[in-house]
Design goal:
With about 450 residues, this protein is an alpha/beta fold. Helix content is about 50%, strand content about 10%. The strands form two sheets. A seven-stranded mixed beta sheet has the order 2-1-4-5-6-3-9, covered by helices on one side. Strands 7-8 form a two-stranded antiparallel sheet. Strand 4, helix 14 and strand 5 form a beta-alpha-beta unit. Helix 3 packs across helix 4, helix 4 packs across helix 9 and helix 17 packs parallel to helix 19. The chain starts with a helix and ends with a helix.
Length: about 450
């Protein structure tokens, strides 16, 4: 195996602690010991321990992503579709080309075909183990529909089956490059949403258990949803679109709408990156990392607001408009807030009479308002009326299978909101959940 892996050119720059590299080194050590002085019992035990460690790692990947059947093939396929290199990223953008790099890629795919067919049986017989033959016909425990990473699992397993059946490196090449073009490469190709870590430098971390909510799940707010859809549709199609600010009362569906938009347009290349206020200093670097990818990115900021003493909004202003570098066309910023103006204002800000440190206070107010003005689309999610609240509660209860009459639901919904935070869509959803959970 070591000789096979050493022939990889484009895909050969794997971390030394990756499963494939570790496994190839262990098998190299096994073969050298077997050929030179034979395998002592101590050496056997040592090699078996190292092999089992890598098998456990393969099982951990399989558990994380819901792999099944041939885990060795699933793992190799997962390596191929997550390796971001110049060839795979180019294929993500334009598909397979006729460039000279194809010669090197086909060399690598020929090696991967050999890895797919690698025979572990001789080594297993000498060591008295059967772990790899078990991996070739693995049956996972649990229901696939409960897996957080079901989306990744289906893609990997489907491509793995096709690669198993590939006649030669040319067919292997066609299947892999087609996957790159259709879904992309790396974590952005496999997941809908991400957040960034607080370490330096930051890393993207996939959000694997994103809510599967759709816009139809949000009852009412049809005008607001249409504005959001129209802007996102233009963005996904490559037309001009604006940054969006969804503001209004809490519990009215602002965050739900954005999650639903990502679910709706994921298959058309839309991805979301959630960023918290304390991470705004990394915004420029985040944008620099994703600006050349073949996806449309929404940078999502939930519950956006600033107090007087907080200056993070200045980073945001510079990124949206005003910085030297133009914001890339594949990136928009969608934010939600309970405040219309985002930054806390004082009444004294409205008076030019008061001057502090040589600056008119009204100038301070203009600076604060300028952040909101950088959002081209502002959508107001206001608290529903009591009639709208009852309509939402009835509809959600019917969807949840509650068999009470409309009048009974309304009467119970009225009691519920009096002791659970007042009228809002969130209150109606919590009420419907409560009724649906009763016997």
């Amino acid at each position: 195996m070591y000789n096979i892996v050493s022939k990889l050119i484009i895909y050969g720059d794997m971390p030394k602690d990756s499963i494939l590299m570790e496994l190839s080194n262990i098998i190299k050590e096994y073969k050298q010991a077997d050929e030179q002085q034979g395998l002592s019992e101590n050496k056997k035990s040592e090699i078996i321990t190292h092999l089992y460690k890598q098998v456990k790692r393969i099982l951990e990947v399989a558990t994380d992503y819901g792999f099944n059947d041939n885990l060795w093939h699933n793992y190799l396929t997962y390596l191929l579709i997550t390796d971001e290199n110049p060839f795979s990223i180019t294929c993500e953008k334009i598909g397979a080309s006729n460039g000279s790099v194809n010669h090197f890629a086909k060399n690598d795919f020929k090696q991967f075909q050999i890895l797919f067919d690698y025979d572990f049986s001789e080594m297993e017989n000498k060591l008295g183990i059967d772990c790899f033959c078990q991996l070739e016909n693995y049956q996972a425990i649990g229901k696939p529909e409960l897996m957080y990473n079901k989306n990744v699992s289906e893609k990997v397993r489907s491509l793995s089956k096709r690669l198993e059946a590939a006649k030669d490196e040319n067919e292997f090449f066609a299947y892999v490059t087609e996957f790159y073009k259709d879904y992309g490469v790396g974590m952005f190709g496999l997941n809908k949403a991400f957040r960034i870590t607080d370490e330096t430098p930051f890393r993207f971390k996939a959000i694997n258990n994103m809510d599967k909510v759709t816009l139809d799940d949000l009852v009412g707010y049809e005008i607001q949803k249409k504005k959001l859809i129209d802007n996102t549709e233009a963005f996904v199609e490559g037309r001009k679109a604006n940054n969006c600010l969804l503001f209004g009362d809490s519990g009215t569906g602002k965050s739900t709408s954005i999650k639903a938009i990502v679910n709706q347009y994921y298959d058309r290349g839309l991805r979301m990156i959630e960023i918290y206020k304390h991470q705004f200093k990394d915004l420029s670097n985040v944008i620099a990392t994703i600006k050349n990818r073949n996806y449309k990115f929404i940078i999502y900021m939930d519950d956006l607001s600033f107090e007087d003493f907080e200056v993070e909004y200045k980073f945001l202003k510079a990124v949206i408009e005003g910085g030297v570098e133009t914001k890339p066309e594949n990136i928009l910023i969608y934010a939600t807030s309970n405040r219309r103006h985002l930054i806390k204002e004082n009444w004294s800000d409205r008076s030019d009479v008061k001057v502090q440190n040589g600056m008119h206070q009204s100038d301070t107010m203009e600076e604060k308002l300028s952040l909101v003005n950088r959002f081209g689309v502002t959508i107001n999610y206001s608290k529903p009326t009591q009639k709208e609240y009852f309509d939402i509660a009835v509809e959600l209860c019917k969807r949840a299978g509650v068999t009470l009459s409309d009048d009974e639901i309304k009467a119970e919904a009225n009691k519920w909101e009096l002791s659970h935070g007042g009228i809002s869509g969130r209150t109606a959803q919590q009420f419907a959940n409560y009724l649906a959970g009763q016997k």
